[in-house]
Amino acid sequence: MTHRSLSSLCFCAIVLLGLSGCASTGSEMTPLEIQAFQTHEFEAPKKTVFGAVVSVFQDLGYIVESADVETGFITSASASVDKTGFWEAMGGVRASGKTRATAFVEEIRPNLVTVRLNFVDTHNRSTAYGQQSSQDSPILDPKPYQVAFDKIEEAVFVRLGVR
């Protein structure tokens, strides 16, 4: 390899490292940005919205673990799925995971309620030797939150129309 091709290769590596550093800092979200897509307001009584959230979690395949209308807190989780990748299987590692979802339903004033959702992806690994590890990752893509809020909006509309 000539000196010129080696220096070109080094220059390309430095540029790529610099660009990857720029990309990662640009994609970080502030807590306010996260809260903005995790929160939605509904013009309806708290009990109506609370019931709609529980119903939508169930419709989306979550198992509701706890729900307390007084505190407005709901916890749920999806069924566990196998997440073992090829290289994990080759190394004798098994992986599984699920998505955990929580909701906080808060009455701001009569007939004005906010709902804040939080989705977290879990990844559990275990080896043939008994070692275990777990990793939780918040889901920061606004799309699943919007889908859930759209379904909650529909459920609230139906519940208000049934009265």
Largest sheet: 7 strands, antiparallel
- Per CATH, the architecture is 2-Layer Sandwich
Query: Which whole number gives the mean pLDDT?
Result: 85
User: What's the total helix number?
Assistant: 5
Rg, Cα atoms, Å:
22 Å
Report how far the terminal alpha carbons are from each other.
79 Å
Order of helices and strands: HHEHEEEHEEEH
The poorly predicted ranges are 2-26
Q: What is the domain tally?
A: 1
CATH first level: which class? Alpha Beta
DSSP strand count: 7
The CATH superfamily is identified as: Kinase associated domain 1, KA1
Helix content: 40-55%
Structural class: alpha+beta
What does this molecule look like?
- The structure is a single chain.
- The chain has 163 residues and is an alpha+beta fold.
- It has a single domain (37-162), classed as Kinase associated domain 1, KA1 (TATA-Binding Protein, 2-Layer Sandwich), CATH 3.30.310.80.
- It contains five helices and seven strands; from the N terminus they run H-H-E-H-E-E-E-H-E-E-E-H.
- It has helices at residues 3-26, 31-38, 46-59, 86-90, 142-162; strands spanning 39-42, 62-68, 73-78, 81-82, 93-109, 112-127, 132-138.
- Helix 3 (46-59) packs across helix 5 (142-162).
- The chain is elongated, with a radius of gyration of 22 Å.
